[in-house]
């Protein structure tokens, strides 16, 4: 063998070796035995009273440092837990398996804050296990004065996921959050499935799943009943796919509100399919403030949606003003375009079943109503649709009669 040939062969061998090592590691990650880090072995006590934050954090740190499939394991029982930050990045594929009930604090000192359980900077995280998160919200709701106080102190979100990628959250229950149940920020490629969310219909700001600045989020097969939006889609949300969700009570699946802050990112590529709204104030909604911030919301698709006694089944509101007075001399500069409402049927609890109230400055473009079959709930007069500054088309059945 010549020197050159020998060298080439060597490089080939080294390449093969490196490739095999990589294969082996990938194999270990995917098929290797998971390593369990049971919180009880770190001193957690499931008596519903002891604060277990330290034990949980230690278990997380060990699982996160495990170069394979590290799993924090929370067995059956009621574990009281304070505010915790589960910080990545982790070495392997980390999972957080909750079989029992995690119970938030009701201490006055820990009433306010950003989040109760916060996962941050983790790739390939799994959170699940069939257990519950009890936010103990009833003690906090009377202290929520955000409706009248613009500088109100924030109450904690039950589970906040910041910068989480290639991950899934499934088989979990969230009850009585103090603020939102789940919040996603800066996340991408996540699957959220088989989640049950519940809080009373009149609990303040208890959004079900709130999403901002996130891409490729899939939400399926979930049941959400709460006091605010079932799903709230905020600026920077892109490529969301929401299907088989039952919402109610609550304020529906909402895009927005948009346009309140400067330099908001666009919202685009939102699909909502095969969902049911039961006794909600709104069904499918897009809301923007009549404020000077610019932006766009486009490529939005709603299909196969059943409305069961919904006050505003279909609504675009570009003069959103939850608590008047709002500064409505302005008109919204958020451009809404390419929005399709297809196969939407059921009952409306108000006569105004379809409302497309767009901005005078930025009229809505390419809005499509395709096969709308809404009837009035008992004691509601004849349904109507109303259009302001909208360009679009309607196809198929239109009940109420289309204003487009
Ligand atoms: C999410 O679901 C899709 C399709 O069901 C699947 O291809 C993808 O691998 C899943 N992602 C994660 C992180 O589980
Ligand atoms: C509808 O929701 C309201 C407010 O949450 C509640 O008071 C009412 O009992 C609900 N009605 C039905 C039929 O579920
Ligand atoms: C539509 O969603 C319901 C649950 O809300 C589910 O039972 C049904 O299988 C779904 N249909 C399709 C075609 O996915």
Automatic annotation (TrEMBL):
<comment type="similarity">
    <text>Belongs to the glycosyl hydrolase 28 family.</text>
</comment>
<feature type="signal peptide">
    <location>
        <begin position="1"/>
        <end position="26"/>
    </location>
</feature>
<dbReference type="GO" id="GO:0004650">
    <property type="term" value="F:polygalacturonase activity"/>
</dbReference>
<keyword id="KW-0961">Cell wall biogenesis/degradation</keyword>
<dbReference type="InterPro" id="IPR011050">
    <property type="entry name" value="Pectin_lyase_fold/virulence"/>
</dbReference>
<dbReference type="Pfam" id="PF00295">
    <property type="entry name" value="Glyco_hydro_28"/>
</dbReference>
<dbReference type="GO" id="GO:0005975">
    <property type="term" value="P:carbohydrate metabolic process"/>
</dbReference>
<keyword id="KW-0378">Hydrolase</keyword>
<keyword id="KW-0964">Secreted</keyword>
<protein>
    <submittedName>
        <fullName>Exopolygalacturonase</fullName>
    </submittedName>
</protein>
<keyword id="KW-0732">Signal</keyword>
<keyword id="KW-0326">Glycosidase</keyword>
<feature type="active site">
    <location>
        <position position="251"/>
    </location>
</feature>
<keyword id="KW-0134">Cell wall</keyword>
<dbReference type="InterPro" id="IPR012334">
    <property type="entry name" value="Pectin_lyas_fold"/>
</dbReference>
<dbReference type="GO" id="GO:0071555">
    <property type="term" value="P:cell wall organization"/>
</dbReference>
<dbReference type="InterPro" id="IPR000743">
    <property type="entry name" value="Glyco_hydro_28"/>
</dbReference>
<dbReference type="InterPro" id="IPR006626">
    <property type="entry name" value="PbH1"/>
</dbReference>
């Amino acid at each position: 063998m010549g020197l050159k040939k020998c060298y080439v062969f060597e490089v080939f061998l080294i390449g093969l070796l490196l490739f095999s090592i990589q294969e082996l590691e990938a194999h270990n990650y995917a098929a290797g035995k998971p390593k369990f880090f049971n919180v009880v072995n770190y001193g957690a006590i499931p008596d519903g009273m002891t604060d277990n934050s330290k034990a949980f954090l230690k278990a997380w740190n060990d699982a996160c440092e495990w170069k394979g499939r590290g799993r924090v394991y929370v067995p059956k029982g009621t574990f009281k837990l304070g505010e915790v930050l589960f910080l990545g990045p982790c070495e392997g594929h980390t999972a957080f398996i909750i079989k029992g009930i995690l119970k938030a604090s009701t201490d006055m000192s820990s009433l306010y804050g950003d989040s109760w359980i916060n996962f941050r900077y983790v790739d390939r995280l799994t959170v699940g296990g069939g257990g519950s998160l009890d936010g103990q919200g009833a003690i906090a709701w009377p202290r929520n004065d955000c409706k009248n106080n613009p500088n109100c102190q924030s109450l904690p979100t039950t589970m906040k996921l910041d910068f989480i990628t290639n991950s899934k959250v499934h088989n979990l229950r969230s009850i009585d959050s103090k603020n939102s149940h789940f919040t996603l920020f800066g996340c991408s490629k996540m699957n959220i499935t088989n989640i049950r969310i519940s809080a009373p219909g009149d609990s303040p700001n208890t959004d079900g799943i709130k999403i901002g600045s996130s891409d490729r989020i899939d939400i399926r097969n979930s049941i959400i009943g709460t006091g605010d939006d079932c799903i709230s889609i905020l600026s920077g949300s892109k490529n969301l796919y929401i299907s088989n969700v039952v919402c109610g009570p609550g304020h529906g699946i909402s895009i927005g509100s948009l346009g309140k802050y400067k330099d908001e990112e666009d919202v685009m590529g939102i699909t909502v399919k095969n969902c049911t709204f039961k006794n909600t104030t709104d069904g499918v909604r897009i809301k923007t403030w009549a404020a000077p911030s610019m932006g766009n919301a486009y490529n939005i698709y709603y299909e196969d949606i059943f409305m069961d006694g919904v006050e505003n089944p279909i609504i675009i509101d570009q003069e959103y003003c939850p608590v008047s007075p709002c500064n409505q001399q302005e008109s919204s500069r958020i451009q809404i375009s390419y929005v399709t409402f297809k196969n939407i049927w059921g009952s409306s609890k108000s006569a105004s079943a379809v409302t497309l109230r767009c901005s005078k400055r930025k009229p809505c473009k390419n809005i499509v109503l395709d096969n709308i079959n809404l009837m009035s709930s008992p004691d509601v007069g004849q349904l109507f649709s109303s259009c302001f500054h909208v360009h679009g088309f309607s196809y198929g059945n239109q009940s109420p009669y289309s204003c487009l």
